[in-house]
Amino acid sequence: MSGSARVPLPRSAEPAGIRAVLRLRDFRRLWIGLGLSSLGDWLGLLAITAMASMLAPHSYSGQNYAIGGVLLLRVLPAVVLGPVAGYLADRLDRRWNLVVGDVVRAALFVSIPLVGTLLWLMVATVLVEAVSLIWLPAKDATIPNLVPADRLEAANQLSIATTYGSALPAAALFVLLSLISRAVDATVRGGGAPATIALYANAATFLVSGLVIASLRDIPPGPALADGDRAGVLKVIVDGWSYVFRTPLIRGLTLGIVGAFAAGGVVIGLARVYVADLGGGDPGYGLLFGCVFAGMAAGMLRGPRVLPTLGRRQLFGLALTAAGSTLAAIALVANLVVVAMLAVVLGACAGTAWILGYTMLGLEVTDALRGRTFAFVQTLIRLVLSLVLAVGPLIAGTIGRHRFRVTDDSVLDYNGAAMTMFAAAVLLIGVGLRAYHLMDDRPSANRHGVPPSMRRGVKPSVRRHRPAYAESGLFVAFEGGDGAGKSTQAQLLAEALSAAGCDVVLTSEPGASVVGSRIRAIVLDPATGQLDDRAETLLYAADKAEHVTKVIRPALDRGAVVITDRYVDSTLAYQGAGRALDSGEVAEVARWATGDLRPHLTILLDIRPEHGRGRYGEADRLESEPAAFHDRVRDEFLRIAVDDPGHYLVLDARSNPDVIHRAVLDRISPLIADAAVGSDQDGTRVGSDETAT
């Protein structure tokens, strides 16, 4: 075989990605309806705040109070009506719930400019949010019935991305409508206020969404409400508080998430008046709104990968602190262009913290407590957000406008909105620092009792080299605890790829080179006895350096598939977490030894230490370590994999070996097809020419 060798992709291995999900007709239509409803929701937020400012008394305090009141009413129904809305969402037919909900919201938004009073604006806002409380759970419950189980994750990702990503086009549409309104008003007097046109456009999006969803015939009616205890808000709060206060990690997560939403509430509540202070008007408001959400989308997508060697817990606190610092800069800089650029950074930091916080809640909280914890956090967010939206504009209005003379020829205007934002920024910085220290789980912090400073913890991660992926060949690593079956699965994969015509190099650590074999005898022989932890780490690093230089790199350069049993992650898990060394220092040594060469795919075979222990015979020096050591190793493997899901496949090592092998082939087949891998007449090569000699 010449050129790139391709492994056939089985039908069952069809990628369960976005394209595959969108090929499902019913889900595609529901997604279109969701996108239009989300677009209308964000456009409605901009429109009603602009309309509130227009209908409010013509005073600085009056505008703040009107906007704050409307925004408060947007979140207050969720606190008061949450349990009732959940009951109705289960009782009503889901399809008609979705259709009627969109039509009713369209009618309510049309009525706001027709009635034209601040009182009706507030009443309509409450009614819209009440309908949305019933519409949203019906939508969430419908998606699993429209997609296969293996595509549900991709469907949920697309749903969430659409819900929050619609903010950017909504902001652009609001700016466009504002500019069109001004142009029309300049030629035809009384052409219509921007907020009025935006509200009509908003109503149209909901109406079209309802028509799209009405075309669906396969949406199930939904189950009747099951008999049994349905926890109310009070019970959720009591259960949530007891669990949160017992667990430092969850306490830090809750503090950070709620603090981030509180700061965001201040920005939302004051942005309209703040932009007006800068002379931006409706277009400037829409621009600022769009910049925040453009940054948020970027943060959700790329933020968790900015510092790949920094743990998710530390990055969460860092993102919150950076968001607070950026908000402080926004409050101090009285220039709309600079503020817009800083708003992108603020959104990116907030988006990173948002996605990290909710991901960790889902991962760290046990299944038995996950629902109650999420409900508690969401209820607390709404309570705090309601308070902030009410108090923020009140404080800003009370402070009022102030002018500070710097020299005879220059003055600085710092009004209540900017001052309130700055105070919120200081609080958010404090929340970020506190969350960072509460959640800092690095061994160096635990051993000394006092977490290291954020600067000390982040500095090594900033200095890291960017990960390097080979431009030719394919590099695959098998990782996992002792007894996970890595060697078996690596051998099965090598045989399958070799049979398909690939040039395959099957190797392992430690011991794949001449020097490495001698190192292996030292580090694994029980007769070696106790080694200094740092000496052990350096020995493994020396083995890796020889392994990469003599075995891995030459094979990849000629376009081969390299399959290794253990690589850098084993050092991070065994020497970093297992030996309780500083994870940053261990990562620095391992990455340096390998030239930061990363596998294209790492397959983690996860197994509990007590289950893996019975799978091997006489224990070597590391296998003889106590259970606590191996528990730390397993936890670190899982943490590493969760932090970079795009390059990891996590499988249950206790599954049937054939099932595991099939899952590995399913994941690796598209990579083989895309990679520039060569073929070899002799099939699988084990080790290297150096090892063979």
In short:
By secondary structure, this protein is mainly alpha-helical. The chain has 26 helices and eight strands.
What is the strand and helix layout of this fold?
Blueprint lengths: L17 H5 L2 H31 L4 H32 L2 H22 L2 H29 L5 H14 L1 H21 L6 H21 L18 H14 L1 H30 L3 H22 L9 H21 L3 H29 L2 H33 L3 E3 L5 E3 L2 H24 L3 H6 L5 H10 L10 E7 L5 H14 L4 E5 L5 H11 L8 H25 L3 E5 L2 H11 L4 H12 L6 E6 L2 H4 L14 H17 L4 E5 L4 H18 L9 E3 L2 H4 L1
Parallel strand pairs: 3-5, 3-6, 4-5, 4-8, 6-7
Antiparallel strand pairs: 1-2
Characterization of the model:
- The strands form 2 sheets. Strands 7-6-3-5-4-8 form a 6-stranded parallel beta sheet, sandwiched between helices. Strands 1-2 form a two-stranded antiparallel ribbon.
- The longest helix is centred in the middle third of the chain and has 33 residues, at 367-399.
- Helix 4 runs antiparallel to helix 8, helix 10 (248-277) packs parallel to helix 12 (312-332) and helix 21 packs across helix 24 (627-643).
- With 693 residues, it is mostly helical.
- 69% of the residues lie in helices and 5% in strands.
- The protein has 26 helices and 8 strands.
- The chain has helices at 18-22, 25-55, 60-91, 94-115, 118-146, 152-165, 167-187, 194-214, 233-246, 248-277, 281-302, 312-332, 336-364, 367-399, 416-439, 443-448, 454-463, 486-499, 514-524, 533-557, 568-578, 583-594, 609-612, 627-643, 657-674, 689-692, and strands at 403-405, 411-413, 474-480, 504-508, 561-565, 601-606, 648-652, 684-686.
- Strand 1 and strand 2 form a beta hairpin.
